[in-house]
Design a protein that fits this description.
Elements: H1 2-31, H2 33-60
Biased composition (Acidic residues): 29-38
Biased composition (Basic and acidic residues): 1-12, 48-61
Biased composition (Basic residues): 13-24
Amino acid sequence: KRADVSDKENVSKKQRTQKKRAPRKFVVYEEDDEETDEDPLRSKRKRTEPEAKKVSAEADA
């Protein structure tokens, strides 16, 4: 039983370590806010292009 408890403790410690690493990764993403801001602009541009195509299609029709 002691071996099982120690194994569970090790697993719980590993999980805690992973959880601590995750927030650090989030901080890195927060530092890359400039890139994150560019992505939404690109997605908006991509959305605007289909709308322009639809408008041109309506003009052709």
